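User: C-alpha cells for this one?
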Amino acid sequence: MSIIRADSIKNRAGNSAPTATNGFIVTGVCTATSFSGNGAGLVGVASTDNINTSTNAVLSGIVTAGTLSVSGNATVTGALGVGGVLTYEDVTNIDSVGVITARAGINVTGGVITGNGSGLTNLSVGLTTESISPSGITTHLLLSSADDHKVLATGNVTIDVTGGTEADNHQVRIENVGVATVGFSTAFKFPSGGTPTLPTASGSFSLITFTIHKVGAAGTILFAGASVDFS
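Assistant:
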C-alpha cells in the first residue's frame, strides 16, 4: 500500500482539481465546501443541515425534521401523521378521527352533513311563511314551500292543501279581514270527526295546526287541531 502525504493536490497545469477516472475511496471523513454531481450512489447519509434540490426529492421511510418548508407542491400518496397542529387551506378531503377546528367557519357548497348534531349550538331555525288573501274561493296551502300559512279571509273560503311531506308539521293563522265563513277540505281530519266552527265576524282570529299523516294519489290526510276565536 502506498501513502501520499500532501497539503494540496492539483492537476498537472496547477489550475484546477485533478481528475480521478476510477473515483476515490475515502475510509475516513471527507470534508468539502460543496459537492456536485450525481449523488445517487451515496449511502449511509444520516443527516444534513440543509438539503437543496431543484428537482424532485423522493424520500422513503421516516423523515424527521425540526422545520419542513415547501414553497411548491408537496404530494403525499400515503398517510400523513401529525402529532401537533396541522394548518392548511384549500384541501379536497378531510378524514379526521379527532376534533376539527374551523376558525373562520365551514361553508358547505355541495353534499350533506351527517352525524349526531346534539352538540351543535347557535343554530337558527325559522319558519317559512306563506301569506294568501282568498275571497269567496277554495284556496290551496302550498305545503312543500312553507310550514307557516297566513290566511286573510273574506267571504266563503274553503282551505285545501297541495304537496307536502309525511310527518311535517304546519300551522294556519286565519284572520277575517271582513265577514268570512271558513271551512276545510276533507283532507283535514279533526278529533272525533268534528269540524270546528270558526268565528265569522270581521277581525276574528283562529289557529289551525296539523301534521301530515300521508300524501299521494290516494289522497292527503292531515291530523288537525283548532284553537278558535282569539278576537
